[in-house]
UniProtKB/TrEMBL annotation:
Name this polypeptide is given: Transcriptional regulator
SMART domains xref list: HTH_XRE
Domain HTH cro/C1-type: 16-70
PROSITE patterns documented for this protein: HTH_CROC1
Length: 281
């Protein structure tokens, strides 16, 4: 199983915040006792920056957490200090997207809706290259493509593979990104991946009419360890947003379930993908 430092950092952040609140300490009081600024402690508790194991040990002593519980959290903090493969691409991956990739690397399931383009995990090299060229220009192009293809390893790993549920607006199948040859290859590839036991693909046809995700694509990430809460991730060209409150996750989960009901079933969706690929051949 992949051990993502991003997921570890997020868990430590949540545990430290809960322990501080349980101890009845404000950010101001705890920060002074730990000899750090209030802003730094706030950023640690919001997983915006990491914290060294020795500082975790000091925080746990302050909150009167000892023994096995303390050592388990310190071990998680050590894991959060490791480097993820995506950090080797920090020259082309913005920090906000590195955070997402770190979550994706350890997710047990991903549920996503895309309105305009093929999801990154299902893109061919040629399609990905054209997407980056159109949305971000030529700078760092090949490095960006390499990082996108590296992300796709989560679908094929053995320990265990992520479960992927994708709902595609029918427009994704019809928009000729990169020209007919690129699209034919992309759609054929997507149909092949959709046959994998851990991938379920739904096509939402135009005939379905209006639907509850018309305003935004999304990804819902869940994790094998119950201690790691699910996340809804939204992004655009310049920023990403992670929603962690249970109400947000529940709302998007209901939306995804509704989209799956409105879409063609997986068998008919596969047939629609194959039909679309022949259109571009």
């Amino acid at each position: 199983m992949t051990v993502s430092p991003t997921v570890r950092r997020r868990r430590i952040a949540r545990e430290l915040r809960q322990l501080r609140e349980r101890a009845g300490m404000t950010l101001d009081v705890a920060a002074r006792q730990l000899d750090m600024s209030k802003s730094n402690l706030s950023r640690i508790e919001n997983a915006q920056i990491g914290i060294k194991p020795r500082d975790v040990r000091a925080a746990l002593a302050l909150y009167e957490v000892t023994g096995v519980d303390a050592e388990a959290l310190i071990e998680i903090a050590r894991g959060a200090q490791q480097r993820g493969w995506w950090q080797n691409y920090s020259d082309v991956l913005p920090e906000w997207f590195e955070f997402y990739v770190g979550l994706e690397a350890e997710a047990e399931s991903l549920r996503t809706y895309e309105a305009e383009s093929v999801p990154g995990l299902l893109q061919t090299e040629a399609y990905a290259r054209e997407m980056f060229r159109r949305t971000a220009g030529e700078e760092g192009l090949e490095r960006k493509v390499a990082a996108r293809l590296r992300r796709q390893e989560v679908l094929h790993r053995d320990s265990p593979r992520v479960e992927l549920s994708v709902v595609l607006n029918e427009a994704v199948l019809l928009r000729p990104v990169g020209g007919p040859a690129v699209m034919a290859e992309q759609l054929t590839h997507m149909a092949r991946v959709a046959r994998s036991p851990n991938v379920t693909c739904y096509v939402l046809p135009f005939s379905a009419g209006g639907h509850p995700a018309m305003s935004t694509p999304y990804v819902i990430l869940t994790f094998a360890d119950a201690a790691d809460n699910s996340v809804v991730y939204l992004d655009n060209l310049t920023v990403g947003l992670a929603l962690e409150e249970a109400g947000h996750v529940r709302g998007y989960t209901l939306v995804h379930e509704e989209l799956c009901r409105m879409a063609l079933d997986p068998e008919r969706s596969l047939a629609r993908l194959e039909e679309a690929s022949r259109h571009f051949a």
